[in-house]
Design goal:
Distance between the termini: 77 Å
Strand content: 25-35%
Number of strands: 46
Domain EAL: 594-841
Helix content: 25-40%
Pfam families: EAL, FIST, FIST_C, GGDEF
Largest sheet: 8 strands, antiparallel
GO molecular function, one term: cyclic-guanylate-specific phosphodiesterase activity
Organism: Marinomonas rhizomae
InterPro entries: Cyclic-di-GMP_PDE-like (IPR050706), EAL_dom (IPR001633), EAL_sf (IPR035919), FIST_C (IPR019494), FIST_domain_N (IPR013702), GGDEF_dom (IPR000160), Nucleotide_cyclase (IPR029787), Rev_trsase/Diguanyl_cyclase (IPR043128)
Mean pLDDT: 83
Number of domains: 4
């Protein structure tokens, strides 16, 4: 296999240079030609090489025999001896990028394994930046992709070529199939991370609105120009870098948003930890020399380069830096792109400011050659030492910060990742650390038993204070010199604390530590002052999970510690034990069953077995049905099962967001079919943190005019910490016609003052304060006052767990607005409930 290329100014020039040239197998055309100017070239090439696969795209710059051209066109001809080509082209739709990618690769995926392509060259023309969803197909299939997005600075004249036609908004894939082909790829990004870690505190899609609670543009101006306005061209050289699921994300500023935000090349979710990334070629030049040396030893037949248009790596057509190093291996052929495609083990990514290459070889596979060392020019004024100095200085600061006590870290960090009641870090902070760092060896989850009874007996403020006392006691005990371990405490929910252990200690010692802690806490008296002082003892159930077992063998991935610790805690509570360890769960069916649940729910999603059941709620005074709450069910092995069996586990996976989106679609279908029906949908705080779910909700309200017929019920409201963050999102959906309900009021600590800040339309009273209201005078007084307060604020009330006539009558007398419970109607299937609606319509 070999490739040659020609740079041509006109078709006449091309005709002359192709004289006597044998017909190739693959033709690639890259040029600065506008689409009308390029059409004659496509027609000519189809006549000149009718049997060849012919592809190409508009390119502001292109590479011919190692030289960079910014005018005319470059033609690359490739000849294969032991390979054959497969190719396909489909339209690219920005609105359906995922489906576009599926359509492009569909013909290839049906082939047998031996006929699968070793690698693909993909070219795409799109008005906007390529959507990440376009390459979802590569995450589920073994696809190796190189290529890029077409582009001229005058975007309306951009194009891609497939055979004898030119297209806009089109995608092309060329696969090389051969049992003898070897391919090497790499990506070079000239960058260095500089500065401290910051948090994305507000984002929407690819637009970052706030960094550390400040407008994103203001943060860029503060650090790059001491507060003065900066140009987009300058900002473009400073990306934000973050790690997500072990994959590095480099988001480059593309445009200023009107509200002070910045449109980035890639989405960065709220809560992401980011640093500035400066693009400069000096930083990585010496680091890549060994990689290019290795490539040189492999004797590639051809090297195709796809480089970012923003890279200034040539002077008067002569390459500099990395292009020059690659040219020492073999003369390069390729093009510049407005986004480069590169495949990692996690799928294909769309790069920016990157140089990617595809090196292929049909012969001498695995045979290295003796070559001269790659030569790197030593620039006397290189900025690399200065950059290294800055980077290493910040690394030292990060290490010093990591050695601070948890108390000092709490003082330094912002409030966004903290629980305001206790000062502890919260669940989102723990999840971020589990996913982004590798410094936790053990995790314990401690749950206070009978916490609801404490809430009911002494009130929410007293229960909050009790929880804070427990947190303080734990931190004090764990900080004593006799323990000698590094730890961090987190508040997971109303009655759960997690403790991460950062010291590599044998699991049996950590289990013993927490067992002793649980015994000491049961013997400790905690005080509650509520008119008169009460002394209480607390009982805990504890789950422990470790990364390594007693012999030091891998037991659990760090990212899964919270799932495993929660699983162990549930086992401890069910079996009335103070503590259980995930290493012992390996001998029990419970662990296997939980892992099996994940597979079962994934299969249920694939088979449309995620179902909605509906439980009606009624006007307490008239008895008429007002609406119905959509309740999640799943059909597993032919049986309808409750989410209580799997939802806590699924919330730790990406399946949870998909389930929410399925339920939303089911509600949408019903609202469109029945214009007078009211539906309530449960959403947790996690849903508002998930980008795909938020996007689905926003698209739902764009498509539909709900006019108060959809109620969004916020569950787990006690886990809301940042009301300033969530209020704008909620208000956005209310402005679009949704009603807001606070679910399970009274189940957790439910700080009344903060819940009032959300100004809900409906306050739902949890079953724990309703089910015995017919016999408990204190609960009657509590519900009476809550109902009176809600009504004074213009909020309606709804009681759950109406399980008998006496409870119903008591709630009617208290003038609770809506009633819901098995005494009135149990949850029924979608078809049965819709049948009832049809009967009402026909009356």
């Amino acid at each position: 296999m070999h490739s040659i290329s020609f740079h041509c100014q006109s078709i006449d020039d091309l005709t002359q240079k192709l004289e006597g040239i044998d017909a190739p197998d693959l033709v690639q055309l890259y040029g600065t030609l506008a689409i009308k100017e390029a059409k004659p070239w496509a027609i000519y090439l189809s006549k000149r090489f009718p049997a060849a696969c012919r592809v190409g795209m508009a390119s502001q710059r292109h590479i011919s025999n190692g030289l960079v051209k910014n005018h005319g066109a470059t033609l690359i001809l490739s000849y294969f001896e032991k390979s054959h080509l497969v190719h396909h082209s489909v339209a690219y739709d920005d609105e359906r990028a995922d489906q576009s990618g599926q359509n492009l690769f569909a013909p290839f995926l049906t082939q047998t394994e031996q006929n699968q392509a070793n690698c693909y060259i993909v070219l795409v023309d799109s008005k906007e930046a390529i959507q990440d969803d376009f390459f979802h197909v590569s995450q589920h299939n073994d696809l190796t992709i190189s290529g890029g997005r077409a582009g001229l600075f005058d975007h309306k004249n951009s194009w891609v070529m497939y055979q004898d036609k030119l297209y806009q908004n089109q995608s092309i894939a060329v696969g090389i199939v051969s049992p003898y082909l070897t391919q090497q790829r790499d990506v070079f990004v000239d960058n260095i991370a500089i500065g401290r870690h910051m948090l994305i505190t507000s984002s929407e899609g690819k637009t970052i609105k706030q960094i550390d609670h400040l407008p994103a543009q203001q943060v860029y101006q503060r650090y790059l120009s001491n507060g003065e306005k900066i140009s987009l061209e300058l900002a473009n050289r400073f990306a934000l870098t973050s790690m997500h699921n072990n994959v590095e994300i480099n988001a480059v500023p593309l445009d200023w948003a009107n509200d002070g935000g910045i449109v980035m090349s890639e989405a960065l979710p709220e809560g992401a930890s980011v640093r500035f990334l400066y693009f400069h070629p000096a930083q990585s030049l010496h680091a890549i020399a060994p990689k290019i040396q290795h490539l040189n030893e492999q004797q590639p037949d051809s090297v195709f380069v796809f480089s970012c248009i923003s890279r200034e790596d040539f002077i008067d057509e002569q390459p500099t830096d990395k292009l020059n190093l690659l040219n020492q291996v073999i003369p390069l052929h390729g093009t510049y792109c407005f986004g480069e495609f590169f495949t990692t083990q996690f799928g294909t990514r769309i790069m920016q400011h990157a140089l990617t290459y595809l090196a292929i070889n049909e012969s001498n596979c695995g045979v290295k050659r003796e070559v001269e060392p790659i030569r790197v020019t030593d620039e006397g004024d290189s900025l690399a030492p200065m950059f290294n100095l800055i980077s290493n200085a910040f690394q030292d600061l990060e290490q010093e910060y990591a050695t601070l006590s948890a108390q000092k870290q709490d003082q330094i960090s912002g409030d966004w990742l903290h629980d305001l009641q206790t000062g502890l870090l919260n669940r989102f902070s723990l999840l971020g650390r589990l996913n982004n760092k590798q410094d936790i060896f053990h995790l314990a989850v401690l749950r206070i038993r009978s916490f609801r009874l404490i809430n009911q007996q002494y009130g929410y403020n007293a229960a909050d204070d009790l929880f804070a006392q427990l947190a303080h006691y734990l931190k004090r005990r764990l900080s004593t010199n006799s323990v000698g371990i590094e730890f961090t405490c987190y508040r997971l929910s109303a009655n759960e604390i997690a403790v991460s252990i950062h010291s590599h200690i044998a699991p049996n010692k950590i289990v013993r530590l927490f067992r002793n802690l649980a015994e000491d806490i049961e013997n400790q008296e905690f005080s509650i002052t509520n008119k008169i002082e009460h002394l209480l003892t607390l009982s805990l159930s504890i789950g422990m999970a470790s990364v390594f077992d007693q012999q030091g063998q891998p037991l659990c991935e760090q990212a899964h510690l919270l799932i495993k610790a929660s699983e162990a805690r549930r086992f401890a509570q069910i079996n009335n034990q103070p503590i259980y360890w995930n290493g012992d769960l390996q001998d029990h069916a419970t662990s296997e069953e939980n892992l099996d649940w994940i597979l079962k729910i994934r299969k249920a999603l694939e088979n449309d077995d995620i179902l909605a059941y509906f439980q009606p709620y009624y006007d307490s005074q008239t008895g008429e049905e007002v609406g119905a709450e959509a309740l999640l069910r799943a059909r597993i092995d032919g049986k309808i099962v409750s989410p209580a069996l799997f939802l806590d586990l699924i919330k730790q996976t990406q399946l949870y967001a998909k389930i929410t989106q399925v339920m939303l679609l089911k509600c949408e279908h019903i609202l469109n079919r029945y214009p007078n029906v009211h539906v309530a949908l449960n959403l947790s705080v996690l849903d508002f943190k998930h980008y795909a779910t938020l996007k689905a909700l926003r698209e739902f309200f764009k498509r539909n005019q709900v006019n108060g017929r959809l109620t969004l019920e916020i569950t787990e409201s006690e886990s809301i910490q940042d009301y300033e963050w969530i209020s704008p999102i909620i208000n956005e959906f209310r402005a679009a016609g949704a009603l807001l309900a606070i679910d399970d009021f009274g189940a957790g600590y439910s700080n009344l003052e903060k819940l009032i800040a959300l100004n809900p339309d409906i306050l739902k009273l949890d079953g724990c304060i309703v089910k015995t209201i017919d016999t408990d005078e204190k609960l009657q007084k509590l519900v009476k006052h809550v109902n009176s307060l809600a009504h004074s604020l213009g909020t309606k009330t709804q009681a759950e767990f109406v399980h008998n006539a006496a409870v119903q009558q008591q709630l009617v007398d208290l003038k609770i607005d809506y009633l819901q419970g098995y005494h009135l109607s149990e949850p029924i299937s979608e078809s049965e409930w819709l049948g009832q609606q049809d009967n009402k319509t026909n009356l």
